[in-house]
Amino acid sequence: MEKWVEELLKWFRVNARSFPWRGYRDWYRILVAEVMLVRTKSETVEKMYRLFLERFPKPEDLCKASLNEVKDIFTRLGLVQRAIRIREAVCLILEKYGGMLPCSYEELISLPGVGRYIARVLLTRVCSNPSPFIDANLIRVARRFLGLQEVDVSYIETWLEKSVYKDVLEDVNVALLDLAGTICKPRNPKCSICPLNSSCTSAKTLS
């Protein structure tokens, strides 16, 4: 295991953020959370996520509800279109797949509201097929760590797949997201307390 991975996981064991969607392997909870989280801060989503599951605790409850009931919650996030997509995706999984999440990437990205990132989260957390899931925040961390001006999603996916053992890939991925949210921020990153500072190409220049 590479040194930076060991240091990151050590930090993560103490500093992992706590959100109500973490720790579950239930496709419904994960799908709801991830659709809500697209380009939206976790702290903003947390309250609405809890409310959503109180109203619609099971996928069947969501599909029995009217679209207006679902829109009501998403309106509070200013994301009404996501209400339509998530309801369509959940009902499609119930109707077409008998309530079992399809575990092929191609079928996942065909679901309404599911793109590359969410599909890979589902593959990792529900289908036991660890696959790096990369968002803009993780791109920022990787770009700084590797000392690259421009880096795309495919490059980071390949880098993580080659650098990290599969059995810890999910933890490393989530740890990097937490690092992005708490330390490696867009402005004024806290390099002095970053667990990766000894391996990070940009740590000295950003400090």
UniProtKB/TrEMBL annotation:
The record, for InterPro entries, names:
DNA_glycosylase (IPR011257), Endonuclease3_FeS-loop_motif (IPR003651), Endouclease-III_FeS-bd_BS (IPR004035), HhH-GPD_domain (IPR003265), HhH_base_excis_C (IPR023170), HhH_motif (IPR000445), MIG/MutY (IPR044298)
Residues annotated as domain HhH-GPD: 36-182
> Which cofactors does this protein require?
[4Fe-4S] cluster
Family classification: Belongs to the Nth/MutY family.
Write one Gene Ontology MF term: adenine/guanine mispair binding
Keyword check for Glycoprotein: no
Q: Which CDD domains match?
A: ENDO3c
Q: Which UniProt keywords apply?
A: 4Fe-4S, DNA damage, DNA repair, Glycosidase, Hydrolase, Iron, Iron-sulfur, Metal-binding
Q: Which reaction does it catalyse?
A: Hydrolyzes free adenine bases from 7,8-dihydro-8-oxoguanine:adenine mismatched double-stranded DNA, leaving an apurinic site
BP terms from Gene Ontology: base-excision repair; mismatch repair
* Family matches, as Gene3D superfamilies: Helix-hairpin-Helix base-excision DNA repair enzymes (C-terminal), Hypothetical protein, domain 2
Entry's EC annotation: 3.2.2.31
Q: In terms of domain of life, where is this protein from?
A: Archaea
Q: Does the keyword Signal apply?
A: no
User: What is the protein name stated in its UniProt record?
Assistant: Adenine DNA glycosylase
Q: Which Pfam families match?
A: EndIII_4Fe-2S, HHH, HhH-GPD
What high-level taxonomic lineage is stated for the organism?
Archaea, Thermoproteota, Thermoprotei, Desulfurococcales, Desulfurococcaceae
Q: SUPFAM superfamilies of this UniProt entry?
A: DNA-glycosylase
